Amino acid sequence: MARKVVLVGPMGSGKSTVGKVVANLLSLPFLDMDQIIEERTGADISWIFDVEGESGFRDREQQLLSELLDAHESCVIATGGGVVERDANRSLLSGRGDVVYLNASLSQLAQRTAKDKKRPLLQVNHPKQRIKELYQRRDPLYREVADHIIDTNAGNPKAVAQSIVSSLNY
Ligand code: S3P
User: What pTM was estimated for this model as a whole?
Assistant: First the structure.
């Protein structure tokens, strides 16, 4: 049966970096949702937010999540940090068995995204405040869909990936 290891968590929690290593360790393809959305649209995420609004982006994200989870091959999927905002996405993710929440402290998240110019939600006057608001709203949502919660504060991507693989029972 096809298994999908799905990484969820805030911007800067390391989903893409760690996801690649997990995919390598498990010899599975790695799929990065933001990257796929950009490739299919032929535009970057900021452009999609500008032109279609956040809801246009969320529509694309929801459609892609459903497609990837339905597909028949096993893979590792890195989602975007806001994937849990929609009830429909949380229903798709809940109870799948291999959803991993990459958790990190607010100071780590702020540090890892400090120089970011690509994430539209962080291009504001007070990005740290935005990170905090998003975290407070979304942390319970990540927990709702997660089968495993992994702390990424201390470990490098390889160590984090290894603890994910050990928790997965593969
Ligand atoms: C978003 C996170 C981003 C990307 C978009 C919106 C969010 O993905 O999907 O900018 O709402 O948190 P990353 O978590 O990979 O940065």
Answer: 0.97
